[in-house]
Input
Amino acid sequence: MANVCFQMKGTAVTAVVMDLYDYSPDQFFEQLKQKIDSAPQFFNASPLVLNLASYDGELQAEQLHQVVGSCRELGLQPIACKAVGGKLASTVMRLGLASLPASNARATEIQVEPAQRVDEKAAIFRPSKVITKPVRSGQQVYAEGADLILMAAVSEGAEVLADGHIHVYAPLRGRALAGVQGDTDARIFCRQMEAELVSIAGYFILNDKLREQCWKQAAHAFLEGESIQVAAL
Output
């Protein structure tokens, strides 16, 4: 009997999503460089999904080549385009990118009545995944279908993810991503906020903004509308 060579399965992959609104070669490159320079360790070699759903006008094939080229030149790794029109489908393929459909999941969620949302959340039992050892640089911990509880520090360059809440009873210096399957009620709690990035349901805030809010203090992060708020505990 032949040996099994591989196994295929679904998993959660952290990727930066770029919503492209407009394109001017010089402005785009300079603005992207400034953003990457604000958190170089986070953005270096990060997978990137380019979302064209909010683009003002019609992006041309040559412009898409330039956008992807600039991203690669600055160290990002484009992996897919979202909401691609029919005219750009062949260009996306030639660039070696996947084509993802536009998503209306967030709009559908917003239309749900508050009372229904409360009932749905109350009916959900979410287990917890507990990690007692430090999460070191380069390591990733994911709590699938669960909250994540960390009893030791999350180092710079480490990444912790959860479908639910994240609790860090120690310094948080790496990246923390809660509600990765779209739970906008997920929160991130930590004893000492020094994170490179915190993200909830796909929205994120970087180190430069975190330094302005409860830096090196006990804090929690939550989503308010489409903005992440950070408050002291």
Summary: Residues 25-38 form the longest helix (14 residues).
